[in-house]
Amino acid sequence: MGVIVEAVVVGILVMLAGTLPWNLLFAANLRYFTAAPWVVPLIAVYLWFYWRYLRGAGPPESTSERRRTLLRANPLPLKVWVWSLIAGALGIVALVLALRVANRLVVLPQQQLPDLSAIPVATVLSLLFMSAAVAGIVEEPWFRRYMQGPIERRYGLPVAILINGTMFGLMHMDFTLMLWAYYVAVAAIYGTVTYLTNSILPAIVLHAAGNIYSSLDLWIRGRAEWQAASTREALVWQTGVDNSFWVTSAALAIAVAVAAAILAYLWLAKLSRHPARSNTVNHSE
After folding, report:
1. Is 283 contained in some domain?
2. Residue ranges making up the domain that contains 166
3. Angle at which helices 177-197 and 157-171 pack, to 10 degrees?
4. Contacts (Cβ under 8 Å, ≥6 apart) of 142
5. Which CA distances in Å does 105 have to 236, 242, 257?
6. Are 94 and 252 in contact (CB under 8 A)?
7. Most CB atoms within 10 A, among 17, 54, 93, 284?
8. Residue 167: inside a domain
9. What is the arithmetic mean of pLDDT over 126-142?
């Protein structure tokens, strides 16, 4: 339990250092001088220093190497980059489709953005894109490295993902039993990609892209099926199973199958590079 507690506490500290300045400045930009996204360059500079510190720059020098190693921001070959993004994107598609089906079976928590009608479009878009960048650059080191890494090494990937996903939901302040499954699924998508590639870089890109999609969907259409709808849908128990439900269910089945196949091949490729010695045949005997 000491490993889990330490991983969670350190992860939360890393997260707070990155998100608190953004949350405060984001709220300030929505209230003061809204004609321009003045917080964006400030946060961009802060993120640069934040990332450099996690990469080992800055004092104390005694922790520099440990910080760099713990970050797990290892460079990857182009081929691994491409396939990790394909696998992660298919996982995200499968999750979105699953939420569409779930939204017709049970009542999901509603989601709302603050009133942005009086804010210029350029300011809104700049803030939404910067919010996605903050989510990727701050939350991935927190969840996938400082929290998942130690638990993964001690108890294995499934336990790490389960704890990671639970904390993911709790820290987003909208934890419910239904969304717990969603957050564990998100942790499984990003966490498995990180585990297979031994790098958080693909997960950063996937996380930021997912946040851009959900934020724009919620802002433009008033609903974000990446997490939950802003308005309640009619349940199939009330309306009966319709064509929309069947089409979405079929698309979900296909997406899950394709995502599972991609991950299986990635896993097979990893195993094939490290064959078990016990299965090696000694032809000299």
Report:
1. no
2. 2-275
3. 130
4. 11, 12, 14, 15, 18
5. 6, 12, 22
6. yes
7. 54
8. yes
9. 90
The rounded percent of the chain whose pLDDT value lies above 70 is 79
* pTM to 2 decimal places: 0.80
What does the chain look like in DSSP terms, one character per residue? -HHHHHHHHHHHHHHHHHHHHHHHHHHHHHHS-TTS-THHHHHHHHHHHHHHHHTT-SS-GGGHHHHHHHH------HHHHHHHHHHHHHHHHHHHHHHHHHHHHS-PPP------TTS-HHHHHHHHHHHHHHIIIIIHIIIIIIIHHHHHHHH-HHHHHHHHHHHHHHHTT---HHHHHHHHHHHHHHHHHHHHHT-SHHHHHHHHHHHHHHHHHHHHHS-BTTTB-SSPPPPHHHH---HHHHHHHHHHHHHHHHHHHHHHHHHHHHHHTS--GGG---TT-
Is 285 part of any domain? Answer: no
Question: Does 211 or 260 have the greater pLDDT score?
Answer: 211
Number of folded domains that form the chain:
1
Positive or negative, the CA dihedral 82, 85, 87, 90 is negative
